[in-house]
Amino acid sequence: MHAFASSAPAGRRRTRRRCGAGTGRRHAAMTVAGVDEAGRGPLAGPVLCAAVILPPDDGLAGLDDSKKLTEARRERLFDAIRDAAVGYAIVAVAAEEIDRLNIFQATMQGMARAIRALPVCPELALIDGNKIPPGLPCPARALVGGDALERSIMAASVLAKVSRDRQMLALHAEYPEYGFDRHKGYPTPAHLQALHRHGACPQHRRSFAPVRAAIAELGGKSP
Questions:
Q1: Cβ neighbours for 79, distance < 8 A, ≥ 6 positions apart
Q2: CA–CA dist 58, 27 (Å, integer)
Q3: What is the pairing mode between strands 124-128 and 140-143?
Q4: Which of 110, 136, 177, 189, by CA, is between 20 and 30 Å from 128?
Q5: CA–CA separation, 83 and 165 (whole Å)
Q6: How many contiguous H segments (helices) and E segments (strands) does the chain have?
Q7: Judging by DSSP bridges, how do beta strands 140-143 and 32-38 pair with one another?
């Protein structure tokens, strides 16, 4: 598991109750963290979870659910969100842990870790989806389709998606035969063909049926 957390620039900080290390700005309104993930469906690579606390006047023009944005727009928003946020945290849960826990539990733990890693402890966490991770340091509410409803969840979806895409590009440089730069690990026909041709790499999720089938077909062959 890898995590990264940050808070607002030092000139705008005041001390308040914390989930992780660092401080954040004080607001009259309730401090709300939006939480989302990217990468539950792929056959390879980590699942990324992000938590973001935005100020009421975030100024993030064009912010939306990451799935509705172009790659270029997501990349531009990535830095803008980090600059505007009261605090944010990004957590990666690796394929090995996904295999050990299963993808649902790995995602729940990743979301909880992201909230706990925030430099400012929120008064409420808004979780995209219909499940609330256990062991949170604050009250939480699950919102189905929350990444289209709440700006803090939209921001979390962008941080998670861009972070994961960048990790998959790095993985492509290590294992170019799978085409991770194109499909980001999702089970496209091209990915499935490469998986059956080359076997599974160390970052493939062996608990996922198509990966298990490819390993069995090739007798455990790896690049």
A1: none
A2: 13
A3: parallel
A4: 189
A5: 20
A6: 7, 6
A7: unpaired
